[in-house]
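Support request, priority: normal
Reporter: lab tech (M.K.)
Component: structure prediction queue

Hi team, I submitted a job for Fibrillarin-like rRNA/tRNA 2'-O-methyltransferase from Natronococcus amylolyticus DSM 10524 yesterday, and the status page still shows it as pending. I've pasted the exact input below so you can check whether something in the sequence is tripping the parser. The sequence length should be 213 residues. Please let me know if I need to resubmit or if it's stuck on your end.
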Amino acid sequence: MSDELPAGVERRQFDGEERLATRGEPVYGEPTNEGWRAWNPNRSKLGAMLELGMETGLAGGDDEMVLYLGAASGTTVSHVADVAGPTYAVEFAPRPARDLLEAADSRPRLFPLLADARKPERYAHVVECDVDAIVQDVATRGQARVALENARFLADDGRLVLAVKARSEDVTREPGDVFADVRDELSEGYEVLEYRRLDDYHADHLGIVARPR
Ligand code: SAM
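Reply from support: The job had stalled in the queue. We restarted it manually and it finished. Here are the results:
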């Protein structure tokens, strides 16, 4: 397992068990201990990628700018905003976005955006260009296309950290075939550095780390 965790993400004890954790207000009923909150890899694809030792390239720190696509009610993006600098969280469904706003209450660096990640021109005036990382977990058809459309925001040396859900692309196909097609499509704009199945935590999901070409 890699020790390359972003600054601010630590392994801490919760009820006698060592778990990934960040410092911040709890968001989804996760255990807390002296200001630390456990990061549940079963609820978070990024948490699973970190648990599995993937080199996400996320560094943490106030200077790190992140664009998070598919923020839902803030489970994962709240951990990201606990350790990173400005974190733009895009979510198009109003209901989870309401909870996301609550998660942002105690996180001044978390900026929820009610927007469609397939239409980045709608938030281009808000998101500063040259973000250090795009973290994407939209679980919708066309996941590679969403990543390609948003590449415009990524710094030349930035990273795409992508979770792909096979069943969102096509429930009838073998996940491995779907993942191969997604990697192939991504290569239009990205160089894939690492990929790994997340099945230990999320069935039929692939984690991908890539950089812009
Ligand atoms: N990333 C979240 C977490 O770990 O806390 C879970 C995300 S959930 C699997 C996928 C989310 O992506 C849903 O909330 C869905 O509404 C959102 N989504 C799907 N397509 C989207 C799009 N085109 N633009 C913005 N959000 C989208």
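The pocket of S-adenosylmethionine is lined by residues 44, 70-72, 75-76, 90-93, 96, 116-118, 137-140 (CB under 6 Å). The mean pLDDT is 97. Let us know if anything else looks off. Ticket resolved.
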